[in-house]
Amino acid sequence: IEKIDPANRQVENIYKWNITVGGKVAKTWVLDLKNVKLYVGDSPDVECTITVSDEDMYALGTGGLTAKDALAQDKLDVDGNIELALK
């Protein structure tokens, strides 16, 4: 988040990430790219909610899995604008 230049962004949406362990939500994060914030919790302004297991989130974050592949393999559940999940 510290590396994001607020004056030069291509994505300015608000995402909610539900991270699951054993099929149950273990932690919910909000990635607010409008205000350049990341925090644990919820927001009424969320435009896209993504639910993913902790293992698949790790694979997404380390480059072992792309969002498109995760969607195709039913490893991501997207509520809201699916186009935002692919940005």
Automatic annotation (TrEMBL):
The organism's place on the tree of life at top rank? Eukaryota
Task: Name all SCP2 domain ranges.
Answer: 9-87
Q: Which organism is it from?
A: Nyssomyia neivai
Query: Can you list the GO cellular component terms from the UniProt entry?
Result: cytosol
| The name this protein goes by in its record | Putative sterol carrier protein 2 variant 2
The UniProt entry, under InterPro entries, shows: SCP2_sterol-bd_dom (IPR003033), SCP2_sterol-bd_dom_sf (IPR036527)
Q: Record's PANTHER family?
A: EUCALYPTUS, ISOFORM B, STEROL CARRIER PROTEIN 2 SCP-2 FAMILY PROTEIN
Q: Which Pfam families match?
A: SCP2
